[in-house]
Write a structure and sequence with these properties.
single chain, about 575 residues, alpha/beta, MutS, DNA mismatch repair protein, Chain A, domain 3, Rossmann fold, 4 domains, four-stranded mixed β-sheet, 16 strands, about 15% strand
Length: about 575
């Protein structure tokens, strides 16, 4: 028995609960600059290039509405709990793509024959899609927990049980068979005395294909005296009697003229007559549309791809977890063993088949009353920008309905992710690089709120250290007053040392905290650990490590001078060498 249609929403979406859509759901602002490499993340999720744009659009529209996010996470949960179900959905995608291609084909057609055949193909594809999806959902229905999958299962069952659908499923194969019966056309061609074609007509539509030898025997020997009449007008080639030097024009040119004379137009008209009864039969299904299936196709692709990404990374030794969603006004984030997904994807390509746990250092992250604005310092290539990017990607993934790259994570959705990363200096910049940076910062503060996330990478580094410190301090004080969450990656160690003064002098509940990418320091070298921990800045050891890295430490330069002088003395003693 089919379920009560009144219980099933008119439009079933895997991304949006009933009554929600992309226009009505509250979403977060996302900076247009792709410094977080969302395009790469979208490519890792999209099962086929055709779905890349839809996946990118979903990731680029992070939501703040908790019920909608939970709705999406439940859809993904079912795909992860039941790999065979997810695989079955993936196998359905090529079939569902056929619905879209059928629509494109219909729009491109011009004559009745092609239109009817395209519509027939569309309906056949629709029946196949509904049947296959209904069977798959029915198989897993007792195990599926998400509201979206259960509603879709009811919709597919109700559709498959409709009288019109059952009638259509029974009738379409008969209509297709009537077309498939026409497998050949007999054309009669009159010849000149020198066996050049001079006229042609259509003789019949046939249910059997011609076979060479038997056909040619009939052509040359059978029914010689029988008058054969065509089923279309006799088409003579223009200037059929024209001879050149006693011979008729060439055979190819004559056949081209026969075609131009309307032979194939005649064939089209006759086939239209054949197709007309089929068109009348299809008119009973004029209200049948695959629009709803076409709408959920990219949504299925999104969740199938997201589930495959989670399984793939887990299989390579990396955690992926379902985030716990906290109230927006809590303005919190707690993550354990967080890592940057973009880095993980790059390592996966570089080390195919290998466990990646040994290549990635997971870090904890905390944004709460103890610290919502983090000044992050550390050596070059110590992981500062990577950690900050992981924070941004965590929110984008969680607020799109995906799992996140961490052992565990709990977060309050942000209403905006604002990026302030360095850009290449453009000679056309009227105000110079510092002016351009200041303009982007003003744009951020004109829109950001206490619920926003601001990520700044080496901001205001285009002027002197003293000026950078002064300008950056003002920005941090303003972020504290605003109440936003922020990460400021910088080499201004004095700024990080100034955290407590900022907290005591500026009112606000977003405390400024110093974080460092930790190192292990000894007499010979500074080894990066890629661990991000709360600690005061360690500017001196970083400077010494940078000097060693570039070969300009005092010891290295002293050794260079000594070796140079030694080489010069040797050259003076042995001038001939």
């Amino acid at each position: 028995m089919s379920p009560d249609r009144a219980e099933i929403p008119e439009i079933i979406s895997l991304l949006w609960p009933a009554g929600q859509n992309v226009d009505s759901a509250p979403s977060a602002f996302l900076s247009q600059h792709d410094d977080l490499r969302i395009e790469v993340i979208a490519e890792s999720i999209a099962p086929e290039r055709e779905y890349l744009r839809a996946v990118r659009d979903t990731l680029s529209t992070p939501l703040t509405d908790l019920p909608t996010l939970r709705y999406r996470h439940e859809v993904l949960d079912d795909c992860l709990r039941h790999p065979k179900f997810s695989a079955g959905l993936g196998e359905l995608l090529p079939l569902m793509r056929g619905l879209k291609e059928s629509v494109r084909d219909i729009r491109a057609r011009r004559n009745e024959l092609s239109l009817v055949l395209s519509r027939l193909s569309e309906l056949e594809n629709y029946v196949e899609c509904v049947t296959a999806l209904d069977n798959l959902l029915d198989q897993f229905a007792p195990q599926l927990q998400s509201r979206a999958w259960r509603q879709l299962a009811k919709r597919m069952r109700a559709t498959a049980d409709e009288v019109t659908f059952r009638q259509m499923a029974a009738e379409l194969p008969e209509l297709r068979a009537s077309i498939r019966e026409i497998v050949s056309v007999t054309i009669g061609v009159n010849l000149s005395p020198d066996l050049k074609p001079v006229a042609a007509t259509l003789l019949s539509l046939n249910k059997r294909r011609f076979k060479g030898p038997r056909f040619f025997r009939k052509l040359w020997g059978a029914d010689e005296d029988e008058e054969v009449r065509g089923i279309s007008a006799l088409r003579e080639a223009p200037n059929a009697a024209e001879y050149r030097g006693g011979m008729m024009v060439g055979r190819r040119e004559t056949m081209d003229r026969l075609e131009a004379g309307g032979l194939f137009r005649d064939l089209g008209k006759i086939l239209d007559d054949v197709i007309r009864p089929i068109n009348r039969a299809l008119s009973a299904y004029s209200r049948v549309s695959g629009r709803s299936l076409r709408a959920i196709e990219p949504e299925i692709a999104f969740f199938v791809g997201a589930a495959e990404l989670v399984r793939g990374l887990r299989a390579r030794g990396l955690p992926m977890c379902k985030p716990t969603l906290l109230a927006v006004d809590e303005r919190r984030l707690e993550a354990r063993d967080l890592y940057n997904l973009d880095l993980a994807l790059r390592l996966r390509r570089q080390h195919p088949g290998q466990d990646l746990a040994g290549y990635i250092v997971g870090n904890d992250a905390s944004f709460d009353d103890e610290g919502r604005i983090h000044i992050l310092t550390g050596p070059n290539r110590g992981g500062k920008t990577t950690w900050m990017g992981a924070i941004g990607l965590l929110h984008i993934l969680a607020q799109s309905g995906c799992y996140v790259p961490a052992e565990s994570a709990a977060l309050s959705p942000v209403d905006g992710i604002f990026l302030h990363f360095p850009v290449e200096e453009d000679p056309s910049m009227e105000s110079g690089r510092l002016g351009e940076e200041a303009g982007r910062l003003r744009a951020i503060f004109s829109r950001a709120s206490a619920r926003s996330l601001v990520l700044m990478n080496e901001s205001l580094a285009s002027t002197s250290a003293a000026e950078s410190h002064y300008l950056a301090r003002d920005v941090l004080c303003s972020l504290r007053m605003l109440g936003a969450r922020a990460v400021f990656v910088t080499h201004l160690h004095g700024l990080a040392a100034d955290c407590e003064r900022i907290n005591s002098e500026v009112p606000g509940d977003s405390r400024v905290q110093s974080l460092i990418t930790d190192v292990e320091d000894d007499a010979d070298a500074v080894r990066r650990t890629f661990r991000v921990v709360p600690a005061p800045p360690r500017g001196q050891s970083y400077a010494r490590e940078v000097a060693r890295q570039y070969g300009i430490s005092f010891e290295q330069l002293t050794e260079l001078i000594a070796n140079r002088d030694s080489d010069q003395e040797s050259a003076d003693v042995n001038p001939g060498r």
